[in-house]
Amino acid sequence: MSYVDEVLDLVVAKNPAQPEFHQATKEVLESLRVVIEANEDEYKKDALLERLVTPERVIMFRVPWVDDKGQVQVNNGFRVQFNSAIGPYKGGLRFHPSVNLGIIKFLGFEQIFKNSLTGLPIGGGKGGSDFDPKGKSDREVMAFCQSFMTELCKHIGADTDVPAGDIGVGGREIGYMYGQYKRIRNLYEGVLTGKGLTYGGSLARTEATGYGLLYLTAEMLKCNGKDIAGKTVAISGAGNVAIYAIQKAQQLGAKPVTCSDSTGWIYDPEGIDVALLKEVKEVKRARLTEYAANRPSAVYHEGKGVWTVACDIALPCATQNELNLDDAKTLVANGCFAVAEGANMPTTLEATEYFQKNGVLFCPGKASNAGGVATSALEMSQNSERLSWTFEEVDNKLQNIMVNIFHNLDDAAKRYGKEGDYVAGANIAGFEKVATAMKAQGIV
Ligand code: NDP
Protein backbone atom coordinates (compact mmCIF):
# COMPACT_ATOMS: atom_id res chain seq x y z
CA MET A 1 0.00 0.00 0.00
CA SER A 2 1.39 3.44 -0.88
CA TYR A 3 2.19 5.97 1.85
CA VAL A 4 -0.65 8.26 0.70
CA ASP A 5 -3.19 5.40 0.94
CA GLU A 6 -1.90 4.41 4.38
CA VAL A 7 -2.41 7.95 5.66
CA LEU A 8 -5.83 8.29 4.07
CA ASP A 9 -6.93 5.08 5.84
CA LEU A 10 -5.48 6.43 9.06
CA VAL A 11 -7.45 9.66 8.74
CA VAL A 12 -10.72 7.73 8.41
CA ALA A 13 -9.87 5.39 11.30
CA LYS A 14 -8.72 8.11 13.68
CA ASN A 15 -11.40 10.69 12.86
CA PRO A 16 -14.70 8.77 12.78
CA ALA A 17 -17.89 10.56 11.71
CA GLN A 18 -16.03 13.50 10.15
CA PRO A 19 -16.93 13.08 6.44
CA GLU A 20 -15.99 16.63 5.40
CA PHE A 21 -12.53 16.19 6.93
CA HIS A 22 -12.10 12.85 5.14
CA GLN A 23 -13.18 14.51 1.87
CA ALA A 24 -10.75 17.42 2.24
CA THR A 25 -7.75 15.24 3.13
CA LYS A 26 -8.55 12.86 0.27
CA GLU A 27 -8.79 15.69 -2.24
CA VAL A 28 -5.46 17.16 -1.12
CA LEU A 29 -3.44 13.97 -0.64
CA GLU A 30 -4.66 12.39 -3.90
CA SER A 31 -3.38 15.34 -5.86
CA LEU A 32 -0.09 15.35 -3.91
CA ARG A 33 0.62 11.74 -4.88
CA VAL A 34 3.12 12.75 -7.58
CA VAL A 35 5.09 14.85 -5.09
CA ILE A 36 4.93 12.36 -2.22
CA GLU A 37 5.88 9.39 -4.37
CA ALA A 38 8.99 11.21 -5.61
CA ASN A 39 10.23 11.49 -1.95
CA GLU A 40 8.26 8.69 -0.31
CA ASP A 41 10.97 7.19 1.94
CA GLU A 42 12.00 10.54 3.36
CA TYR A 43 8.45 11.77 4.00
CA LYS A 44 7.44 8.46 5.53
CA LYS A 45 10.42 8.31 7.91
CA ASP A 46 9.58 11.82 9.12
CA ALA A 47 5.83 10.96 9.30
CA LEU A 48 5.32 14.19 7.42
CA LEU A 49 1.81 13.36 6.21
CA GLU A 50 0.67 12.07 9.61
CA ARG A 51 1.82 15.36 11.14
CA LEU A 52 0.20 17.35 8.33
CA VAL A 53 -3.24 15.77 8.86
CA THR A 54 -3.11 16.03 12.67
CA PRO A 55 -3.88 19.47 14.14
CA GLU A 56 -1.19 20.91 16.40
CA ARG A 57 -3.94 21.74 18.89
CA VAL A 58 -7.75 21.42 19.15
CA ILE A 59 -9.62 23.58 21.64
CA MET A 60 -13.26 22.78 22.43
CA PHE A 61 -15.29 24.66 24.95
CA ARG A 62 -18.72 25.41 26.38
CA VAL A 63 -20.32 28.76 25.47
CA PRO A 64 -23.14 29.62 27.93
CA TRP A 65 -25.17 32.79 27.33
CA VAL A 66 -28.54 34.22 28.33
CA ASP A 67 -31.25 34.85 25.72
CA ASP A 68 -33.78 37.71 25.75
CA LYS A 69 -36.28 35.60 27.71
CA GLY A 70 -33.77 35.05 30.51
CA GLN A 71 -33.18 31.44 29.46
CA VAL A 72 -29.60 30.14 29.57
CA GLN A 73 -28.44 28.68 26.25
CA VAL A 74 -25.35 26.53 25.72
CA ASN A 75 -23.41 26.21 22.46
CA ASN A 76 -20.23 24.38 21.48
CA GLY A 77 -17.13 26.46 20.70
CA PHE A 78 -14.16 25.27 18.64
CA ARG A 79 -10.73 26.48 17.59
CA VAL A 80 -8.47 24.17 15.60
CA GLN A 81 -4.86 25.38 15.47
CA PHE A 82 -3.81 23.18 12.60
CA ASN A 83 -0.35 24.14 11.40
CA SER A 84 2.02 26.97 12.36
CA ALA A 85 5.01 26.01 10.20
CA ILE A 86 4.96 29.23 8.17
CA GLY A 87 3.32 31.71 10.56
CA PRO A 88 0.77 32.27 13.35
CA TYR A 89 -2.48 30.32 12.94
CA LYS A 90 -4.89 32.26 10.74
CA GLY A 91 -8.42 31.41 9.65
CA GLY A 92 -12.00 32.45 10.19
CA LEU A 93 -14.68 31.75 12.77
CA ARG A 94 -17.94 30.24 11.51
CA PHE A 95 -21.21 30.59 13.43
CA HIS A 96 -23.78 28.25 11.89
CA PRO A 97 -25.96 25.46 13.32
CA SER A 98 -24.19 22.90 11.10
CA VAL A 99 -20.79 23.54 12.72
CA ASN A 100 -19.10 20.52 14.31
CA LEU A 101 -15.52 19.41 14.86
CA GLY A 102 -15.21 17.65 11.48
CA ILE A 103 -16.29 20.77 9.58
CA ILE A 104 -13.86 22.98 11.49
CA LYS A 105 -11.07 20.47 10.86
CA PHE A 106 -11.77 20.33 7.12
CA LEU A 107 -11.73 24.12 6.96
CA GLY A 108 -8.55 24.36 9.06
CA PHE A 109 -6.79 21.77 6.92
CA GLU A 110 -7.67 23.58 3.68
CA GLN A 111 -6.57 26.84 5.26
CA ILE A 112 -2.96 25.59 5.63
CA PHE A 113 -2.52 25.35 1.85
CA LYS A 114 -4.57 28.45 1.07
CA ASN A 115 -2.49 30.58 3.41
CA SER A 116 0.70 29.15 2.00
CA LEU A 117 -0.44 30.00 -1.53
CA THR A 118 -0.86 33.68 -0.65
CA GLY A 119 2.93 33.92 -0.22
CA LEU A 120 2.36 35.61 3.17
CA PRO A 121 3.62 34.31 6.56
CA ILE A 122 0.41 32.78 7.97
CA GLY A 123 -0.25 29.29 9.31
CA GLY A 124 -3.58 27.43 9.16
CA GLY A 125 -6.42 27.45 11.68
CA LYS A 126 -10.21 27.67 11.88
CA GLY A 127 -12.87 27.94 14.54
CA GLY A 128 -16.49 28.60 15.24
CA SER A 129 -19.64 27.50 16.97
CA ASP A 130 -23.01 25.86 16.30
CA PHE A 131 -24.60 29.16 17.41
CA ASP A 132 -27.03 30.59 14.83
CA PRO A 133 -26.97 34.42 14.72
CA LYS A 134 -30.07 34.40 12.48
CA GLY A 135 -33.17 35.71 14.21
CA LYS A 136 -31.23 36.74 17.33
CA SER A 137 -31.36 40.27 18.72
CA ASP A 138 -28.19 42.38 18.78
CA ARG A 139 -28.05 41.92 22.55
CA GLU A 140 -28.21 38.13 22.20
CA VAL A 141 -25.45 38.15 19.55
CA MET A 142 -23.32 40.33 21.85
CA ALA A 143 -23.93 38.05 24.84
CA PHE A 144 -22.90 35.03 22.79
CA CYS A 145 -19.81 36.72 21.29
CA GLN A 146 -18.64 37.89 24.71
CA SER A 147 -19.01 34.44 26.22
CA PHE A 148 -17.27 32.83 23.22
CA MET A 149 -14.33 35.24 23.49
CA THR A 150 -14.07 34.87 27.26
CA GLU A 151 -12.72 31.37 26.63
CA LEU A 152 -11.09 31.87 23.21
CA CYS A 153 -8.97 34.81 24.41
CA LYS A 154 -6.83 32.41 26.45
CA HIS A 155 -5.61 30.73 23.28
CA ILE A 156 -5.13 33.51 20.70
CA GLY A 157 -2.96 36.61 20.25
CA ALA A 158 -1.51 38.84 17.53
CA ASP A 159 1.58 36.59 17.22
CA THR A 160 -0.13 33.30 18.09
CA ASP A 161 -3.47 32.91 16.36
CA VAL A 162 -5.47 35.60 14.56
CA PRO A 163 -9.09 34.61 13.77
CA ALA A 164 -11.34 36.41 11.25
CA GLY A 165 -14.93 36.15 9.99
CA ASP A 166 -16.61 33.39 7.98
CA ILE A 167 -20.23 32.29 7.58
CA GLY A 168 -22.34 34.06 10.20
CA VAL A 169 -19.44 36.18 11.45
CA GLY A 170 -19.32 39.67 9.94
CA GLY A 171 -18.39 43.14 11.19
CA ARG A 172 -20.90 43.11 14.05
CA GLU A 173 -19.66 39.84 15.55
CA ILE A 174 -15.96 40.75 15.08
CA GLY A 175 -16.61 44.06 16.89
CA TYR A 176 -18.24 42.39 19.91
CA MET A 177 -15.47 39.78 20.12
CA TYR A 178 -12.71 42.38 19.77
CA GLY A 179 -14.22 44.48 22.57
CA GLN A 180 -14.31 41.50 24.91
CA TYR A 181 -10.74 40.44 24.05
CA LYS A 182 -9.44 43.93 24.80
CA ARG A 183 -11.40 44.09 28.05
CA ILE A 184 -10.05 40.80 29.37
CA ARG A 185 -6.48 40.85 28.04
CA ASN A 186 -5.94 44.63 28.31
CA LEU A 187 -4.19 44.56 24.96
CA TYR A 188 -4.99 46.71 21.94
CA GLU A 189 -3.52 44.46 19.29
CA GLY A 190 -4.40 43.00 15.90
CA VAL A 191 -5.81 39.77 17.34
CA LEU A 192 -8.76 39.62 14.94
CA THR A 193 -9.04 40.72 11.33
CA GLY A 194 -12.11 42.00 9.55
CA LYS A 195 -12.27 44.75 12.18
CA GLY A 196 -14.18 48.00 11.67
CA LEU A 197 -12.29 50.87 10.06
CA THR A 198 -12.41 52.96 13.25
CA TYR A 199 -10.50 50.38 15.31
CA GLY A 200 -7.78 48.87 13.14
CA GLY A 201 -9.63 47.33 10.20
CA SER A 202 -8.25 47.45 6.68
CA LEU A 203 -9.90 49.17 3.76
CA ALA A 204 -10.90 46.59 1.11
CA ARG A 205 -11.04 43.67 3.60
CA THR A 206 -14.84 43.50 3.27
CA GLU A 207 -14.61 43.31 -0.51
CA ALA A 208 -11.44 41.17 -0.64
CA THR A 209 -12.70 37.61 -1.03
CA GLY A 210 -15.24 38.43 -3.74
CA TYR A 211 -12.92 40.84 -5.55
CA GLY A 212 -10.01 38.42 -5.29
CA LEU A 213 -12.14 35.64 -6.74
CA LEU A 214 -12.81 37.75 -9.82
CA TYR A 215 -9.18 38.89 -10.18
CA LEU A 216 -8.08 35.27 -10.22
CA THR A 217 -10.90 34.16 -12.54
CA ALA A 218 -10.04 36.94 -15.00
CA GLU A 219 -6.37 35.88 -14.98
CA MET A 220 -7.26 32.20 -15.45
CA LEU A 221 -9.42 33.12 -18.44
CA LYS A 222 -6.78 35.43 -19.89
CA CYS A 223 -4.12 32.71 -19.69
CA ASN A 224 -6.51 30.45 -21.58
CA GLY A 225 -7.18 32.97 -24.35
CA LYS A 226 -10.54 34.19 -23.04
CA ASP A 227 -11.86 37.51 -21.78
CA ILE A 228 -14.21 37.83 -18.82
CA ALA A 229 -15.95 40.89 -20.32
CA GLY A 230 -19.35 40.08 -21.75
CA LYS A 231 -19.64 36.69 -20.05
CA THR A 232 -22.74 35.52 -18.17
CA VAL A 233 -22.00 34.42 -14.61
CA ALA A 234 -24.03 32.21 -12.26
CA ILE A 235 -23.23 32.93 -8.59
CA SER A 236 -24.61 31.19 -5.51
CA GLY A 237 -24.84 32.73 -2.05
CA ALA A 238 -25.87 36.21 -1.02
CA GLY A 239 -23.39 36.85 1.75
CA ASN A 240 -20.06 38.62 1.96
CA VAL A 241 -18.28 36.63 -0.75
CA ALA A 242 -21.19 36.53 -3.21
CA ILE A 243 -22.07 40.22 -2.94
CA TYR A 244 -18.56 41.47 -3.71
CA ALA A 245 -18.02 38.82 -6.37
CA ILE A 246 -21.13 40.13 -8.11
CA GLN A 247 -19.92 43.72 -7.78
CA LYS A 248 -16.45 43.03 -9.19
CA ALA A 249 -17.84 40.82 -11.99
CA GLN A 250 -19.93 43.78 -13.11
CA GLN A 251 -16.95 46.14 -12.89
CA LEU A 252 -15.02 43.77 -15.16
CA GLY A 253 -17.84 43.84 -17.72
CA ALA A 254 -19.42 40.44 -16.96
CA LYS A 255 -23.08 39.87 -16.16
CA PRO A 256 -23.96 37.98 -12.95
CA VAL A 257 -27.56 36.79 -13.21
CA THR A 258 -28.14 34.73 -10.05
CA CYS A 259 -27.68 34.65 -6.28
CA SER A 260 -29.10 32.44 -3.53
CA ASP A 261 -29.53 31.93 0.19
CA SER A 262 -30.39 28.90 2.27
CA THR A 263 -34.09 29.06 1.35
CA GLY A 264 -34.18 30.03 -2.32
CA TRP A 265 -32.55 31.69 -5.32
CA ILE A 266 -32.93 34.61 -7.70
CA TYR A 267 -32.70 34.67 -11.48
CA ASP A 268 -32.34 38.20 -12.74
CA PRO A 269 -31.66 38.18 -16.51
CA GLU A 270 -30.91 41.91 -16.48
CA GLY A 271 -28.09 41.37 -14.02
CA ILE A 272 -28.16 41.44 -10.22
CA ASP A 273 -28.75 44.89 -8.69
CA VAL A 274 -25.92 44.98 -6.12
CA ALA A 275 -27.20 48.03 -4.26
CA LEU A 276 -30.57 46.34 -3.73
CA LEU A 277 -28.95 43.04 -2.74
CA LYS A 278 -26.77 44.82 -0.16
CA GLU A 279 -29.80 46.63 1.25
CA VAL A 280 -31.73 43.35 1.60
CA LYS A 281 -28.86 41.25 3.01
CA GLU A 282 -26.48 43.62 4.79
CA VAL A 283 -28.92 46.21 6.15
CA LYS A 284 -32.30 44.49 6.55
CA ARG A 285 -30.83 40.96 7.02
CA ALA A 286 -33.94 39.78 5.10
CA ARG A 287 -34.72 36.89 2.72
CA LEU A 288 -34.24 37.08 -1.04
CA THR A 289 -38.01 37.30 -1.54
CA GLU A 290 -37.51 40.92 -0.52
CA TYR A 291 -35.10 41.38 -3.46
CA ALA A 292 -37.62 39.95 -5.93
CA ALA A 293 -40.40 42.11 -4.47
CA ASN A 294 -38.38 45.23 -5.31
CA ARG A 295 -36.98 44.20 -8.71
CA PRO A 296 -39.45 43.55 -11.56
CA SER A 297 -36.90 41.72 -13.75
CA ALA A 298 -36.10 39.16 -11.01
CA VAL A 299 -37.75 35.81 -10.42
CA TYR A 300 -37.52 34.09 -7.01
CA HIS A 301 -37.52 30.28 -6.76
CA GLU A 302 -37.75 28.22 -3.59
CA GLY A 303 -35.00 25.67 -2.89
CA LYS A 304 -31.88 25.02 -4.93
CA GLY A 305 -31.45 25.80 -8.64
CA VAL A 306 -28.74 28.35 -9.45
CA TRP A 307 -26.79 25.78 -11.50
CA THR A 308 -29.72 25.18 -13.90
CA VAL A 309 -29.24 28.65 -15.43
CA ALA A 310 -27.28 28.84 -18.70
CA CYS A 311 -23.97 30.60 -18.02
CA ASP A 312 -20.35 30.85 -19.20
CA ILE A 313 -18.84 30.96 -15.70
CA ALA A 314 -20.04 29.48 -12.40
CA LEU A 315 -18.88 30.88 -9.07
CA PRO A 316 -20.18 28.90 -6.07
CA CYS A 317 -19.99 31.30 -3.09
CA ALA A 318 -22.33 29.83 -0.42
CA THR A 319 -21.11 26.72 1.40
CA GLN A 320 -19.48 23.28 1.15
CA ASN A 321 -20.83 20.60 -1.22
CA GLU A 322 -23.44 22.88 -2.81
CA LEU A 323 -22.49 21.85 -6.37
CA ASN A 324 -22.81 18.11 -7.04
CA LEU A 325 -22.32 15.83 -10.04
CA ASP A 326 -25.82 16.45 -11.45
CA ASP A 327 -25.27 20.20 -11.18
CA ALA A 328 -21.92 19.84 -12.95
CA LYS A 329 -23.55 17.88 -15.81
CA THR A 330 -26.23 20.54 -16.19
CA LEU A 331 -23.68 23.36 -16.20
CA VAL A 332 -21.51 21.67 -18.83
CA ALA A 333 -24.55 20.83 -20.99
CA ASN A 334 -25.55 24.52 -20.82
CA GLY A 335 -22.15 25.72 -22.03
CA CYS A 336 -20.34 26.65 -18.81
CA PHE A 337 -16.58 26.64 -19.47
CA ALA A 338 -15.08 27.97 -16.22
CA VAL A 339 -15.72 27.40 -12.51
CA ALA A 340 -13.92 29.15 -9.67
CA GLU A 341 -14.84 28.45 -6.05
CA GLY A 342 -15.63 31.43 -3.83
CA ALA A 343 -16.80 29.21 -0.95
CA ASN A 344 -14.68 26.53 0.71
CA MET A 345 -15.09 23.11 -0.96
CA PRO A 346 -18.47 23.94 -2.57
CA THR A 347 -17.89 21.39 -5.34
CA THR A 348 -18.06 17.67 -4.56
CA LEU A 349 -15.13 15.47 -5.65
CA GLU A 350 -17.25 13.81 -8.38
CA ALA A 351 -18.36 17.17 -9.76
CA THR A 352 -14.77 18.46 -9.78
CA GLU A 353 -13.63 15.40 -11.72
CA TYR A 354 -16.50 15.81 -14.18
CA PHE A 355 -15.53 19.43 -14.86
CA GLN A 356 -11.89 18.50 -15.36
CA LYS A 357 -12.73 15.60 -17.69
CA ASN A 358 -14.94 17.89 -19.76
CA GLY A 359 -12.33 20.60 -20.27
CA VAL A 360 -13.87 23.12 -17.88
CA LEU A 361 -11.30 25.48 -16.34
CA PHE A 362 -11.64 24.71 -12.63
CA CYS A 363 -9.99 26.66 -9.82
CA PRO A 364 -10.32 25.35 -6.23
CA GLY A 365 -11.34 27.64 -3.37
CA LYS A 366 -8.04 27.42 -1.58
CA ALA A 367 -6.62 29.47 -4.45
CA SER A 368 -9.56 31.45 -5.77
CA ASN A 369 -10.97 32.59 -2.41
CA ALA A 370 -7.57 33.29 -0.83
CA GLY A 371 -8.04 37.05 -1.32
CA GLY A 372 -9.88 37.26 2.00
CA VAL A 373 -7.15 35.78 4.12
CA ALA A 374 -4.46 37.56 2.10
CA THR A 375 -6.08 40.91 2.89
CA SER A 376 -6.44 39.83 6.51
CA ALA A 377 -2.67 39.35 6.52
CA LEU A 378 -2.35 42.86 5.06
CA GLU A 379 -4.56 44.06 7.93
CA MET A 380 -2.12 42.38 10.37
CA SER A 381 0.79 44.20 8.69
CA GLN A 382 -0.99 47.55 9.01
CA ASN A 383 -1.78 46.85 12.69
CA SER A 384 1.86 45.96 13.37
CA GLU A 385 3.15 49.18 11.86
CA ARG A 386 0.20 51.15 13.29
CA LEU A 387 -0.62 52.64 9.90
CA SER A 388 -3.56 52.43 7.50
CA TRP A 389 -3.10 52.03 3.79
CA THR A 390 -5.48 53.50 1.20
CA PHE A 391 -8.15 51.40 -0.52
CA GLU A 392 -6.16 51.54 -3.77
CA GLU A 393 -2.96 50.38 -2.05
CA VAL A 394 -4.68 47.35 -0.53
CA ASP A 395 -6.67 46.58 -3.68
CA ASN A 396 -3.50 46.73 -5.84
CA LYS A 397 -1.68 44.39 -3.47
CA LEU A 398 -4.70 42.06 -3.56
CA GLN A 399 -4.71 42.02 -7.36
CA ASN A 400 -1.00 41.20 -7.47
CA ILE A 401 -1.43 38.44 -4.90
CA MET A 402 -4.29 36.82 -6.84
CA VAL A 403 -2.43 36.99 -10.16
CA ASN A 404 0.67 35.49 -8.47
CA ILE A 405 -1.39 32.71 -6.89
CA PHE A 406 -2.73 31.73 -10.29
CA HIS A 407 0.74 31.67 -11.87
CA ASN A 408 2.21 29.71 -8.94
CA LEU A 409 -0.38 26.98 -9.19
CA ASP A 410 -0.25 26.96 -12.99
CA ASP A 411 3.56 26.55 -12.84
CA ALA A 412 3.36 23.84 -10.14
CA ALA A 413 0.87 21.86 -12.25
CA LYS A 414 3.14 22.14 -15.29
CA ARG A 415 6.25 21.09 -13.32
CA TYR A 416 4.56 17.81 -12.42
CA GLY A 417 3.16 17.16 -15.91
CA LYS A 418 -0.38 18.15 -14.91
CA GLU A 419 -0.90 21.19 -17.08
CA GLY A 420 -4.35 22.73 -16.62
CA ASP A 421 -5.05 20.72 -13.44
CA TYR A 422 -5.37 23.70 -11.11
CA VAL A 423 -6.53 21.54 -8.19
CA ALA A 424 -3.25 19.63 -8.24
CA GLY A 425 -1.31 22.83 -8.91
CA ALA A 426 -2.82 24.61 -5.89
CA ASN A 427 -2.25 21.68 -3.56
CA ILE A 428 1.32 21.14 -4.74
CA ALA A 429 2.32 24.81 -4.59
CA GLY A 430 0.73 25.20 -1.13
CA PHE A 431 2.26 21.96 0.16
CA GLU A 432 5.84 22.56 -1.01
CA LYS A 433 6.37 25.64 1.15
CA VAL A 434 4.76 24.12 4.25
CA ALA A 435 6.65 20.83 3.89
CA THR A 436 9.98 22.63 3.50
CA ALA A 437 9.30 24.74 6.61
CA MET A 438 8.20 21.68 8.62
CA LYS A 439 11.34 19.81 7.65
CA ALA A 440 13.58 22.75 8.58
CA GLN A 441 11.94 23.01 12.02
CA GLY A 442 12.58 19.37 12.99
CA ILE A 443 10.17 16.89 14.50
CA VAL A 444 7.62 19.13 16.22
P1 NDP B 1 -22.02 34.72 4.76
O1 NDP B 1 -22.55 34.21 6.04
O2 NDP B 1 -21.81 36.18 4.57
O3 NDP B 1 -22.94 34.20 3.55
C1 NDP B 1 -23.14 32.85 3.30
C2 NDP B 1 -24.18 32.72 2.22
O4 NDP B 1 -24.33 31.34 1.88
C3 NDP B 1 -25.54 33.20 2.65
O5 NDP B 1 -26.23 33.68 1.52
C4 NDP B 1 -26.18 31.94 3.19
O6 NDP B 1 -27.61 31.96 3.14
C5 NDP B 1 -25.65 30.90 2.25
N1 NDP B 1 -25.53 29.60 2.95
C6 NDP B 1 -24.83 29.34 4.08
N2 NDP B 1 -24.97 28.07 4.46
C7 NDP B 1 -25.80 27.53 3.55
C8 NDP B 1 -26.34 26.22 3.39
N3 NDP B 1 -26.05 25.24 4.26
N4 NDP B 1 -27.14 26.01 2.32
C9 NDP B 1 -27.41 27.00 1.44
N5 NDP B 1 -26.95 28.26 1.54
C10 NDP B 1 -26.14 28.50 2.58
O7 NDP B 1 -20.65 33.92 4.52
P2 NDP B 1 -19.46 34.27 3.54
O8 NDP B 1 -19.97 34.90 2.29
O9 NDP B 1 -18.41 34.94 4.32
O10 NDP B 1 -18.90 32.80 3.22
C11 NDP B 1 -19.37 32.01 2.12
C12 NDP B 1 -18.36 30.92 1.83
O11 NDP B 1 -17.09 31.52 1.50
C13 NDP B 1 -18.06 29.95 2.96
O12 NDP B 1 -17.76 28.68 2.43
C14 NDP B 1 -16.79 30.55 3.58
O13 NDP B 1 -16.04 29.56 4.28
C15 NDP B 1 -16.08 31.00 2.33
N6 NDP B 1 -15.05 32.01 2.53
C16 NDP B 1 -15.34 33.22 3.10
C17 NDP B 1 -14.35 34.17 3.23
C18 NDP B 1 -14.63 35.53 3.75
O14 NDP B 1 -13.73 36.38 3.71
N7 NDP B 1 -15.84 35.84 4.21
C19 NDP B 1 -12.95 33.89 2.85
C20 NDP B 1 -12.78 32.61 2.19
C21 NDP B 1 -13.79 31.72 2.07
P3 NDP B 1 -28.44 32.53 4.40
O15 NDP B 1 -28.32 34.02 4.30
O16 NDP B 1 -29.82 32.03 4.19
O17 NDP B 1 -27.77 31.97 5.61
Give a nutshell description of this structure.
This protein is an alpha/beta fold and 444 residues long. Helix content is 49%, strand content 15%. NADPH dihydro-nicotinamide-adenine-dinucleotide phosphate is lined by residues 165-168, 209, 237-242, 261-263, 317-319, 342-344, 369, 372.
List keywords for this structure.
single chain, 444 residues, five-stranded mixed beta sheet, five-stranded parallel beta sheet, 13 strands, globular, binds NADPH dihydro-nicotinamide-adenine-dinucleotide phosphate
Can you tell me about this structure?
- By secondary structure, the chain is an alpha/beta fold.
- It is 49% helix and 15% strand.
- It contains 17 helices and 13 strands.
- Strands 1-2-4-3-5 form a five-stranded mixed sheet. Strands 7-6-11-12-13 form a five-stranded parallel sheet, sandwiched between helices. Strands 8-9-10 form a three-stranded antiparallel sheet.
- Strand 12, helix 13 and strand 13 form a beta-alpha-beta unit.
- The protein is globular, with a radius of gyration of 21 Å.
- The model has no long low-confidence stretch (mean pLDDT 97).
- The structure holds NADPH dihydro-nicotinamide-adenine-dinucleotide phosphate.
- NADPH dihydro-nicotinamide-adenine-dinucleotide phosphate (NDP) binds next to helix 9.
What is the fold's blueprint, element by element?
Blueprint (H helix, E strand, L loop, with lengths): L2 H12 L4 H20 L1 H6 L2 H6 L3 E10 L5 E12 L5 E7 L5 H17 L5 E7 L8 H15 L8 E4 L6 H15 L19 H19 L8 E4 L4 H12 L3 E2 L1 E3 L3 E4 L6 H10 L5 H5 L5 E4 L10 E3 L9 H9 L4 E3 L8 H9 L3 E3 L1 H4 L2 H15 L5 H25 L6 H19 L4
Parallel strand pairs: 3-4, 3-5, 6-7, 6-11, 11-12, 12-13
Antiparallel strand pairs: 1-2, 2-4, 8-9, 9-10
Helix pairs in contact: 1-2, 2-5, 2-17, 5-17, 6-7, 8-9, 8-15, 8-16, 12-13, 15-16, 16-17
The site of NADPH dihydro-nicotinamide-adenine-dinucleotide phosphate (NDP) has 22 residues, from α9.
